[in-house]
Automatic annotation (TrEMBL):
Top-tier EC class: transferase
A Pfam short name: HisKA
Residue spans crossing the bilayer: 12-33, 154-178
GO MF annotation terms: phosphorelay sensor kinase activity
The protein's name: histidine kinase
Reaction catalysed by this enzyme: ATP + protein L-histidine = ADP + protein N-phospho-L-histidine
UniProt key word Ribonucleoprotein: no
UniProt-listed PROSITE patterns: HIS_KIN (PS50109)
SUPFAM superfamilies in the cross-refs: ATPase domain of HSP90 chaperone/DNA topoisomerase II/histidine kinase, Homodimeric domain of signal transducing histidine kinase
Ranges of residues in domain Histidine kinase: 239-475
Domain of life per record: Bacteria
Compartment(s) of residence: Membrane
Organism: Glaciimonas immobilis
Keywords: Kinase, Membrane, Phosphoprotein, Transferase, Transmembrane, Transmembrane helix
Length: 485
């Protein structure tokens, strides 16, 4: 796994564990060697205790070692003690006859410890060479290793437990330190994950660790490039849409003239009518692209907001909406009360046009559409109710996605509600979708640019849908209520 955390832990923990192991080995050696020296010194003391009892008589070495004195030298509650005193020619003067042979020593009266065997059992031997008169004497003292093994086991077990505890504490400390050190990366990740898809603002470079500074600068540089690219794309889209509007409008005018001129020629009139319909669709798509470019949240400037009367914006286009509704014999009604909000007129016209156009498109022939503007206590509300097929609960989270369409058999490009979403977000508003039975599905577009963080779709489908845009701004000035039109 290519993980910085794992690499840091490996680079820190493995060497420190090795150092800890080496330290434990040294500690064991420092604890055991002095204990071994102390045991050997005790054996050497027993050997030295026999030297004062040696004397030379008539050229022969004799030892005055009583049985009681020998028993004192052999007393040990854990190990067996073996003694031997031999003359230079190998004659046994005292002790155990089966004691292993003693090596020749280079130094006199200097004990030499070494390991050996005595009666089939490992023993520790201390050999001592001394001179009595003109005679050399060899003294050997040995003991079994039971006590030493016990002490050695205690030292090993104690150090093992201590080193295991230290290793665990070491790993835990390093893990905590690495996790703490990586928190700025985690914070930066959370910051990026919590952003909306269109939030390309720069990361804060002032409150990051020195080591993350270059990374944050690189990310900010990338975000700036992406933002510039998105802006250029939007400018290109707006320019293309704007440049297409004039020739398309002229083309439509010419087609209308041709349709009148060749009305008496059925085939020509039919062909011209089809071209006119295609031109209308192209004009609408061009207008949609232009509206989408204007409504892009990343380029919207809040200082463009001003006090706007929604009802008057609707009134300006009533004739157009009525004409469109008449094509399908739809009964369209308006309940327009004075409704003032903070808004941008061009964008609000696009919002109104798209919601009403969407209602007319999806309503059946001889259906009904009701458009309302209401001044509520929390702000203005613009709503459009239709008698269309309704929106399934599973699709209510998708209808505001660009190019998503519920019914491919109905003309459209899938941008209308996406434009409504962006305009709603630009104005800090929220949009709700509710079926005819008034079970509200709130998608809180002011909180989430796609659908909303608090979406609670219901499971039923119904005939008819109500789209309502809520502008949560305080009422500005005195609101005079108008009679419904």
């Amino acid at each position: 796994m290519n993980s910085i955390r794992i690499k840091l832990l490996m680079w820190l923990i493995v060497p420190l564990l090795i150092v800890n192991f080496v330290g434990a080995s040294v500690s064991y050696w420092l604890a055991w060697v002095p204990a071994q020296i102390a045991f050997d010194q005790s054996l050497a003391d027993a050997g030295w205790a026999m030297i004062p009892r040696l004397r030379e008589v008539n050229g022969q070495v004799e030892i005055n070692l009583s049985q009681q004195a020998e028993q004192v030298l052999r007393v040990d509650h854990f190990d067996a003690i073996y003694l031997v005193v031999r003359s230079g020619d190998g004659k046994l003067l005292a002790g155990d006859a089966d004691f292993p042979g003693l090596p020749q020593q280079k130094a006199v009266n200097e004990p030499a410890p070494y390991d050996g065997q005595m009666r089939g059992e490992p023993v520790r031997i201390v050999a001592l060479q001394t001179t009595i008169g003109q005679q050399q004497v060899f003294i050997g003292v040995a003991e079994t290793l039971r006590k030493r093994k016990h002490i050695r086991s205690v030292i090993f077990l104690t150090l093992s437990l201590l080193e295991a505890f230290l290793a665990i504490m070491l790993v835990a400390t390093i893990w905590f330190a690495v996790s703490k050190g990586l928190l700025p990366l985690k914070k930066m990740q959370l910051d990026l994950n919590q952003r909306n898809h269109d939030d390309l603002s720069a990361l804060d470079e002032d409150n990051v660790p020195l080591e993350l500074g270059p990374v944050v600068k690189a990310v900010n540089g990338l975000l700036n490039k992406v933002q510039n690219g998105a802006q250029r794309q939007q400018h290109f889209l707006a320019n293309v849409a704007h440049q297409l509007r004039t020739p398309l409008a002229g083309f439509r005018t010419q087609l209308e003239w041709l349709l009148i001129k060749h009305a008496s020629e059925p085939e020509t009139a039919h062909s011209v009518k089809l071209m006119a319909l295609s031109t209308e669709r192209m004009i609408r798509q061009t207008n949609q692209l232009l509206a989408l470019a204007r409504a892009e949240p990343t380029k919207f400037e809040k200082d463009r907001l001003a006090v706007v009367e929604l009802n008057k914006l609707v009134e300006e286009s009533i004739q157009h909406f009525v004409e469109e509704a008449d094509k399908k014999a739809i009964d369209i009604g308006f309940n327009l009360q004075t409704t003032r909000v903070m808004g941008e007129p061009f964008l609000l016209r696009d919002l109104i046009d798209n919601l009403i156009d969407n209602a007319i498109r999806y309503s059946p022939v001889k259906g009904t559409v009701t458009v309302s503007t209401i001044q509520g206590k929390d702000g203005g509300v613009f709503s459009v109710e239709d008698s269309g097929p309704g929106i399934a609960a599973s699709e209510r989270e998708l209808i505001f996605t660009r190019f998503y369409r519920i019914d491919d058999n109905i003309a459209g490009n899938g941008l209308g509600l996406a434009i409504v979403r962006d305009i709603t977000k630009d104005h800090g508003a929220r949009i709700t979708v509710e079926p005819a039975n008034n079970n509200v599905t709130n998608y809180g577009i002011n909180e989430d640019p796609d659908i909303g963080a608090n979406a609670c779709p219901t499971t039923e489908t119904s005939t008819g849908t109500i789209f309502s845009v809520h502008f949560p701004f305080p009422i500005l000035g005195t609101i005079s209520r108008l009679q419904p039109l």
